[in-house]
Sequence to fold (888 residues):
Amino acid sequence: MTDARPPILETRGLTMRFGGVVAVDNVDFSLAEGELRCLIGPNGAGKTTFFRCLTHQYKPTAGHVIYRGDDITGSHTHQIARRGIGIKTQVPSVFDGLNVHENIWLSARRHHKDRDADKAVDQILERLSLGHLAKKVVGQLAHGERQGVELGIVLTGDPELILLDEPTAGMTHEEVSRTTEMIREINRTASLIVVEHDMQFIKAIANKVTVFNQGTILVEDTMENVLKNQEVRDVYLGKREVA
Amino acid sequence: MKISLDLKSWNTHGLIFVGVLMLALLLAGPEVFDLFVLLKVILFISTAMLALSMAFIWGFGGILCFGQSAFFGLGAYAYAIGVINIGESTVPILLSVLIPAGFAILLGYFMFYGRLSDIYLAVVTLAVTLIFYAFIRSTSGEEYVIGNARLMGFNGISSIPVFNWPGFPNSPLWPDDIFYVAMTLLILVYFSLRILLRSHFGRVIVAIRENETRAEYLGYDVRFYKMIAFSIGAGVAGLAGCLFVSFNNFINPDVFALGLAAQIIMWVLIGGVGTLVGPMLGSLALQMLYNWLGTQSFVSFLNTYLVFGAIIIFFVLAVPQGLQPTARLLALRFLPFTRSPEEAEEAARARQGSGDD
Amino acid sequence: MDTVALLIIEVLNGISSLALTCAGLAIIFGMMRVINFAHGEFMMLGGYTTVVATNAGVNIWISMLILSPLVVGIIGILSERLLIRFFYGRLVDTLIATWGLSLLLIGIVTAIFGNYITGVSAPLGNFALGQYQLSVYRLVLIGLAVLLFVGIYLVFTRTRLGLIARGTMQNPDQAAALGISPPRVYMITFGIGAALTGLAGGLLAPISQIIPTVGFTYVAQAFITVITGGTGAVTGTIIASGIFGTVRQLVTYETTPIIGGVVLLIVAVVVLRLLPQGITGKIFRRSL
Fold:
């Protein structure tokens, strides 16, 4: 089933080499506008490295990352953020020494003027049920709460594309359900790429799924089909021989 | 530019307290201190301002500059050379701010846009101040001249004209007046930095210190912000250098040396990294200690190096956060009336034990 | 012809002095990521040990090659146990703690020996190179520097001790799981680094000033060389010493030692700008 919508993010021939190890091998990838895609695969498959090439944490050894038709491979990190790409990292990247309100304010202030920034912050706090934590210093919050704060920081920017790296890591069941709802809601206005391990979570949110293995894309299909795919099972169970 | 000013917070109380103290000092100064002490006080003001500059870029900006003395020295020499050439002090005072700030933009561009990490930054800034030291020291020959002013190398430049009333080059300021000017400048700089830190720019600087990557993910060009913060710190240090010359009438390359560069770090360390007032007090305390040691006669085995070394070791082992934050922590613990409403609430909840949600 | 030979010897001399000065610091920084600001003072102590011992009648070679490293090695271990080990991982705190240590050491030496002390002269006399008189000792220094670095490299790569050290630096948890005690390895490595620095101080004593504050002249250049060398402790230092030593000597030959020092610093700054992780930063990670 081909998607008629134009791709919002593509990679062409993306390759990442560390010394002699090829972590990402000539990957062509495409995300349609408004799509929600999950990247899965066993540990060491290259999905996290691929993700980090997208977030510009790594500079790809070769290949291109294209956002809305523009080649952003060589851009600076702050430039890709200004294009409307939001990033949520595996270990929550927040301002530990500042309180929740200040964390989100910094994001809001980039897009709004003073008074509107405060209003935007309040809105996000409410939407994510973080209001009661507003004055607490983020460094002292529980892990799940910090994930929430980071999500708040990202959403405040009203991004068009959000890259999420293991958003539910360390969350309780309740928090995971809330996050599932939230992600579905966010998907109404933004495209998403999510790297995840939690299968239940993926089943709940995903439409199409990209399975990585040994630096390349093994399979790209709906979650249903992927789960039935024998190759995928082999890879996860370790039966697949090294090519 | 909207600055949030929470009138009930501890920070605001502290600010008011400091402001009142400084004002009192300003008004009462010349009455209370005799001439000799007044000159020393002007020196303290100069070093306090230098400490402020370091407190800003290191404590709030997270930029560990090992060569802050370079900007202090540049400002001092800029004033000296400027006033010898121009004959009037107003423009040279401006130069003492602008030249270091300008140089800092260049150096900052070089370092921050080159993505130099913390420790390399420290090394490069140290190298810069040492380069200045070595270079200026070697300029004693007659050929080293800027306009009418000879650089004088390791001899230093003496008989530097003091401040004069703006527009009246033949009316120099008396020490009393120089004190007023210096103290007023210190108050202005302190409160300007405070206001700056509460502005959007200031908050971004602090955020960058907290988490540079996240600041970038938010779209802030951290290289630019750091460069600007670095430059502001340099300008303040330059002004401090100018004040230093104003009371001394003399400047020599020692301002660029390792000794001062290291002391500046000590002031902030001891006063408290992350506060503005702490390092000012730290510089005061250490200067007074240095003076006191100089007058002691049993100095034979208790020399300066020994004492300073022991103090630093003590502080880094026992009081790692520095004086002011530690004093504050102690006060919060033992003196309930110093707590802000939120902190009092926290403490009460903690005492009742956790066990809610 | 002799001028060229002289220049070559001068340059090699400059490189060896710099390399010797940096050896201990390279081990400590390269292996442990510790910035030892008291490095100059360790050199000073090595110099003082040699001078005091030799003036007391001990053979100069024994003072330089045995006593200096021994004494400074012990001081190094004491410093590590009593002070530095509390700050591992905290670069700034280590910097400041070792800086306090440096001041303290200067203070103690000044208190005991005062500001001036009689030095020692270089052994082995002079030889003639065409129209120039050269100190034989300087040639010996070049040879010793080479021997030292070869020795360090061999110890770290070929011996069990070296392997343990390298393994612990790269992965302390794993080393601990294998029954190796990381704190012990750190202590010994620091001690060895200090001993090497003491050795350098002793070897350079006949040709340098012997005052309590002589450390200042070493520390900045040593630091800048080691840090610019990058993470590869031995290789980086050798390369950096080679480059900077050459530059410094050539410039000094044409102008003055001060300008030579300044140019060294400038070159270092430029190199760092081009290679923000040091010369060997991209090649080695936390190794030799």
Notes: DSSP finds nine helices and ten strands in chain A. Strands of chain A lie at 7-18, 21-32, 36-40, 62-67, 70-71, 85-88, 161-165, 191-195, 208-213, 216-222.
